[in-house]
Amino acid sequence: MKTKHIIFTAAISALAVVSCKKEDPKADFQPITQYQNSIPEFYNPVKSGDTYGANTPDYTIIANVMDQVRLPNDLDFNTTAGKENELWIVNEGTVNSGSTNIIIQNAGQDNQMELYRKDGNSWHFMSLSTALAFSEENGNFGTSPGVYDANHNGGAPFTGPSLWSSDLSIFAQYAGAGTNGSHLDMLHESPYCMGIASEVDNAFWVFDGDANNIVKYDFKDDHGAGMHDHSDAVIARYTEASVTRKSGVPSHMILDKKTGWLYICDTGGKRIMRLRISAGNIKRNLTMTESVSSYVEMENAEWEVFATSNLVDPCGIEISENRLFVSDNATNEIIAYDLGSKEELGRLQTTATNIRGIKVGPNGKLWYVDYSGNKVVRIDPK
Which segments of 131-280 does DSSP mark as H helices, in order? Predict the structure, then answer.
């Protein structure tokens, strides 16, 4: 049985958002309706005699350094049916070792178990990983390497996102003679990948911190564990959506599948952007680092700035219903926004010392990783 440690100190600033607007079935977003608790991830609904948002949440430490959580950058829940409470954490690791993973089965429950996994060649395929994201359709997940060259030989840049299976009989297991690690695929057009978001199946979006672009990678059919055929991949670079990397701080992204808006932490730009993934057309073919089916530059992208006020180092990002959540690595706050109005709903001052990835779990609660605190934490509203 896992002993959980509760931290009770916290501060919260919240706005009671009450609206009488009617829903517009054609709108991207619906207004927050009257008497609805505007940020249930921060605090419980108002009760008779209570002051709205007065009860600060508890912070439950789910895992820490004793569970081999060391320098965690991100977390995500397994999307495979029956494994919804299986939480995956990516530890940054070192250039010499590569990243590692902690897999928490039955996360936050009395019978939770922690598994440590390290791919046989994470030195290359999961080098200083900044983020991970699960595909909802197939249980695969992608990771983004935070290095310039995954070969670490001082040569030309050669790195980009990797694709993995969450099947524990495949992930970080020997795949047979002639194989290289357990990765399902890897593409190499984005040095300093600072974030990754799943779209559908084996298609992902990444924050390219070297070229300062957003890039879509569709691995198509994976090449099998430890193999090397990348020829069916399709890559599209959105050069008009310019972003800025901040060294040492991830820039996570999240796709709102209801609207097709990709939300981006532009960490170096101190802002949140969004890109409409259905907009744009092919401008020209680009020179390939390796042989793939298609590598193009896009034009006429639809993008805009979503938020800039009082953001220092936006890092983690998540969506829950009509709310967008952003973690600020500099202030250790989580900020909540209304997706429709872009209005800031409130800020939660967490107990983290270096907050990074955030995720809404299957029970609707917010979870985050504390990089320098070596912790995975769940926020429990009161």
Answer: none
